[in-house]
Request: fold
Amino acid sequence: MRLVVDLIRGKRVDEALHILHFSPKSASKVAEKVLRSAVSNLQNQDEGGRVDPEDMVVKRVTVDGGMTMKRISPAPMGRAFRIRKRSNHITVVVEAVAPKKGSAARPAKSRAKTSSTAKTAPAEAKAADTASDKK
Reply:
């Protein structure tokens, strides 16, 4: 289960759903159901309107050990082997990100671009002020 969940951590929701849908592992079907449930919960929780899956990011995904069912399999010479049927607890946290105008970049990149333009804007304003003072 952890192998499948590691594929979608930090991705956009629509991209994560495509990865899980076309993954050959059987755990991907369960992870896809949990992700769809988390997206539905976020959409129903948001009172301001619908949030598109393109504007959501998988913020955090954890897989913890759940209950283990113990079964017995017969073995030779009157012995028994123990079979452990393991289960998991999956936690998915989905976050809505503000939609970008123009291109569909990942949220981490958009933050970096925003901070770099904020640093260059005051320098250009100072240059414009000094140019007008010289005239």
